[in-house]
Amino acid sequence: MEPALVGLLFADRIINEDNGKKGIIGTFNRFSAPQFPVNFPPWAIYAAVTNIQGPHKFSVRLVHNEDETKVVIPIEGDMNVPSVNDVAELIFSINNAVFPTPGKYNLTFSIGNEIVGSRVLFVEQKDVQ
């Protein structure tokens, strides 16, 4: 049984609604700033994984593609998925993540030591109006 990542998003905000749904507001794949290092206003990451059951360790890492020592976000945790048919939805509020330089940043989601999905966040240097 291999885990299946069914969602990995950057968003301005994620809301847990009273009915169990998630409201994902303002998805994006690009940040811009006039100078670096920069700390962007609060934002969030949404991850959804299925085809797993029981307790598992997970990690979320955002690193600069050209210099993996530039780790912007290191998150590790535990989850327990009741059934292989369930979708485990994880929300991470990101505050005070410092981007040292512009460039491509790679977000990976791992279960144990296995990367089950990734996506790119582009961080550009330009005048923001």
Explain this structure.
The chain has 129 residues and is mostly beta strands. It has a single domain (4-125), classed as Sandwich (Immunoglobulin-like). Helices cover 0% and strands 67% of the residues. The protein is built from no helices and 11 strands. The protein has strands spanning 4-16, 22-28, 30-33, 38-39, 43-50, 54-64, 71-81, 87-94, 98-99, 103-111, 114-125. The strands form 3 sheets. It has a 5-stranded mixed β-sheet, with no helix packed on it. The radius of gyration is 15 Å and the shape is globular. It starts with a strand and ends with a strand. The mean pLDDT is 95.
Structural descriptors:
single chain, 129 residues, mainly beta, Immunoglobulin-like, four-stranded antiparallel β-sheet, 0% helix, 67% strand
- The total count of helices amounts to 0
- Low-confidence sequence ranges: none
How do the strands of the widest beta sheet line up side by side?
3-11-10-6-7
Largest sheet entry = 5 strands, mixed
> What is the global morphology?
globular
Average pLDDT? 95
- CATH C-level label: Mainly Beta
Oligomer status = single chain
How far do the termini sit from each other?
Answer: 48 Å
Number of structurally distinct domains: 1
Report the sheet-strand fraction. over 45%
Summarize the helix and strand pattern as letters.
Answer: EEEEEEEEEEE
Write out the CATH superfamily name: Immunoglobulins
Number of E strands:
11
